[in-house]
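To close the chapter, one final illustration. This time we ask the reader to focus less on the individual chains and more on the assembly as a whole: which components sit near each other, and how the overall shape emerges from the parts.
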Amino acid sequence: MAKNKTIYRCQACGAVTVKWLGRCPDCGQWNTLTEERAQEKGRVTVSSGPSEPLLLKEIQYQQDKRLTTGIGELDRVLGGGVVSGSLVLIGGDPGVGKSTLLLQAINGFLKTAGGRGLYVSGEESAQQIKLRAERLGIDSENLLVLSETVLENLILRAEELSPQMLIVDSIQTVYTVELSSAPGTVGQVRECSYRLMNYAKKYNVPTFIIGHVTKEGALAGPRVLEHIVDTVLYFEGERSSSFRILRAVKNRFGSTNEIGVFEMTDRGLKEISNPSELFIQNSSRDEPGTVYTATIEGTRPIIVEIQALVSPTVFGMPRRTSIGIDYQRVNLLIAVLEKIGGVPLGMSDVYLNVVGGLRVLETAVDLPVLLSITSSFRDVPIDSKTVVFGEVGLTGEIRLVSQIDVRLKEAQKIGFKRAVVPVEALNRVGSSLNIELVGVRDISEALEVSFGR
Ligand code: TYD
Ligand code: MG
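The assembled structure is written out below.
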């Protein structure tokens, strides 16, 4: 074997060494050297000449050919089906259901596309995959399963079999023999993804790779994969809840605004085409601490239930816990509620939860959060046919949020009769709505219309 087939490059300054070092000799940063293949001599050649600029209006293109995966929610997030020859990365915590999703997807795909599919797993044995497939009711006749971790072998097999779709589960388990670093390291993951990209483009095969999210929440190393692949999807969900969201983070062939909603059942992932109904199952009861809100996820409105529990503090320090809503935001809202709303929470623990395990990050939930805390504190329920949304400013004013119409329409569809909204929203809604609107200017008005004082 020739010497120095691989080199180590500093990710911070670009310095190159032939041995791995803990600290870059050039810039002095720690742990920045990653292994890569040395460029062969002559591989970088001067192109034959400068390329011609084209007039934008004269550039011709072909519509991307899109193929359905048989899973509507996945197709939607991909931008209307998977583009042939594209490389899609699906990231997510271990156990969230990535393997399940792709096994179902390749099955659905083969039904319409025909041909063979290849599912390569370095994580599970063929028997384990068979077991899962039985549970999922996978009946494709032409799905091949390969247990392999060496990238070169994997590509060789794929070239032999020429499948219509390739799935690699997961990118952290495959490795190329050309690099000496361990599977899952930045160098390996990057090199393997490059080669899979080349494969996908060369043979025009839609290729999915699964990537586990590391502890820091990034995909293997500092986002090393995201710029290589065409599309990055994240599969999210709390371990304790069966509900899952598929989100596009990057998409060269579509918008990143779409989300897909699924439920994990004992027979695999089930699509949820109307998410609101999932989150408000027992909406008929009036309970202190419960408030309904309309939030926007991607382009879709979802009605969610926010619950607060306020109880007396036992030890001197009041506790604040929040699940599904940003903790810092909750602290800020509690401060505004105390100072401007006049609700004394200094001796109370506050627990907040978004029912169903959804994470709501937009500011439209400010007002419902405030009202649910107050409702629990006073032990007075808020009418369960009322939906609430609005941003709260530090001076207690209620501010406008986006997409008022979309939120209200969804609320009306689900059967809400009344909406407490920012006052400026009143002149932004269409007349076709059949829901009573209550505009509020600030916290005290919001408390008054909700509790009568
Ligand atoms: P899996 O697809 O293996 O997750 P990942 O590939 O992201 O690590 O799914 C793992 C979990 O899903 C596992 O804890 C069991 C659960 N599950 C179901 O609840 N129902 C099913 O039909 C299947 C196949 C898995
Ligand atoms: Mg898996």
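The longest strand covers residues 300-312. The radius of gyration is 26 Å. With these observations in hand, you are ready for the problems at the end of the chapter.
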